[in-house]
Design brief:
EC number: 1.1.1.86
Protein name: Ketol-acid reductoisomerase
InterPro entries: 6-PGluconate_DH-like_C_sf (IPR008927), 6PGD_dom2 (IPR013328), KARI (IPR013023), KARI_C (IPR000506), KARI_N (IPR013116), NAD(P)-bd_dom_sf (IPR036291)
Strand order of the largest sheet: 1-2-10-9-8-7-6-3-4-5
Low-confidence stretches: none
Bound molecules: NADP nicotinamide-adenine-dinucleotide phosphate
Number of helices: 17
Family: Belongs to the ketol-acid reductoisomerase family.
CATH superfamily of the largest domain: NAD(P)-binding Rossmann-like Domain
Mean pLDDT: 97
Helix content: 55-70%
Largest sheet: 10 strands, mixed
Strand content: 5-15%
Distance between the termini: 46 Å
Order of helices and strands: EEHEHEHEHEHEHHEHEHEHHHHHHHH
Cofactor: Mg(2+)
Length: 347
């Protein structure tokens, strides 16, 4: 572990320097890693592990487009690609990467394959934390571990191919074998993480549900929509409103924040812009703080999990989500966005 100062708070983290890939390979040399589910995280983690030299097989239900995707990615039926039950039987480490709703449905099928000494791996603390609602209660004689990449499986793969990595959290819920810590860190390095920071299952799920409902996805859309509407209500054109709300942010400003922080982005804008941003950010913080506190309380009370489980267990949940996404896509702001994107040079 390396001790790093995060804004005045010291934290222990794992980097590829203290735990190099060769060490990860040594720890997992006798393991068969069965990736169950080939949705978004499945391919990213499986392909990175395979390319890093680990022994990986896939478990995916047949008669599904996802099976065909796995074949197209080079997994060979009967050799490295199996039905879920067969892969779970062969695997010594079971990476449970079905959708969170799928994990609940399939749990009674998977559980018998979790025999003594195996490891059950998650990329989200959801199933274990909300066990009253999911009924996911692993046997006592298996390790239960987590590596949660902080981003999409697609980005995990893209960054790996570019020689970079997404940061991941890791956690140990149950150490039955005494090997859980080495196993989880080795897997975290193997899937292509940048650095690894330790958490527990509950903190992982509370922060993740808050983040995606909050600044990563929900809040950002809300703030975009509010500012766009204010500009449109005051007679600004869609092109002007979209450029001032979204395009400038994604094309110009966020890459600067990613590179060197908020102050550096501010410093690269006009002094007029800096004066205004420094005056107004606290007002936005005050206005949204109660909403974030309400959101966290809802997550902690299990209400967000309940909503997710009840909506995802409906047979037509995908259609309903697609309909809502379509409404978003068809809103004036995002239609204006499509037009702006088409006008980007080089398109
Ligand atoms: N999305 C991300 O990038 C991301 C990021 C960090 C952590 N995570 C976590 O990683 C885990 C996997 O998430 P994901 O987004 O990769 O999931 P996903 O894309 O929604 O997973 C779909 C996979 O689950 C299978 N599946 C769903 N329901 C099933 C059922 N009832 N029986 C059998 N198979 C079923 C699908 O097979 P079919 O195609 O045949 O239906 C497919 O293989 C979750 O715990 C999630 O919270 C995800």
């Amino acid at each position: 572990m390396a001790t790093i100062n995060f804004g005045g708070v010291l934290e222990e983290v794992v980097t590829r320097e203290e735990f190099p890939m060769e060490k990860a390979r040594e720890v997992l040399k006798n393991e068969t890693i069965a990736i169950i589910g080939y949705g978004v995280q499945g391919p990213g983690q499986a392909l990175n592990l395979k390319d890093n030299g680990f022994n990986v097989i896939i478990g995916q239900r047949k008669n599904s487009k996802t099976w065909d995707k796995a074949v197209a990615d080079g997994w060979v039926p009967g050799e490295t690609l199996f039905e879920i039950e067969e892969a779970a039987q062969k695997g010594t480490i079971i990476q449970y990467l079905l959708s969170d709703a799928g994990q609940i449905t399939l749990w009674p099928t998977l559980k018998p394959f979790l025999t003594k000494g195996k490891a059950l791996y998650f990329s989200h603390g959801f199933g274990i934390t909300y066990k009253e609602q999911t009924n996911i209660i692993p046997p006592a004689d298996v390790d239960v571990i987590l590596v949660a990449p902080k981003g999409s499986g697609t980005s995990l793969r893209r960054l790996f191919l570019a020689g970079q990595g997404l940061n991941s959290s890791f956690a140990i819920f149950q150490d039955a074998t005494g090997k859980a810590r080495d196993r989880v860190i080795a897997l975290g390095i193997g899937v292509g993480s940048g650095y690894l920071f330790e958490t527990d299952f509950k903190k992982e799920v509370f922060s993740d549900l808050t983040g995606e409902r909050g600044s990563l996805m929900g809040a950002i859309q809300g703030i975009f929509a509010a500012q766009y509407q204010t500009l449109r209500n005051n007679g600004h054109s869609p092109s002007e409103a979209f450029n001032e709300t979204v395009e400038e942010l994604t094309q110009s400003l966020m890459p600067l924040v990613a590179e060197n922080g908020m102050d550096w982005m501010y410093a690269n804008c006009s002094t007029t812009a800096q004066r205004g941003a420094l005056d107004w950010w606290k007002k936005f913080k005050e206005a949204t703080q109660p909403v974030f506190d309400e959101l966290y309380a809802s997550v902690a009370a299990g209400k967000e999990a309940e909503r997710s489980i009840s909506s995802n267990s409906q047979a037509d949940y995908r259609d309903k989500l697609n309909k809502e996404l379509e409404e978003l896509r068809n809103s004036e702001m995002w239609q204006a966005g499509a037009a702006v994107r088409k006008l980007r040079p080089g398109k």
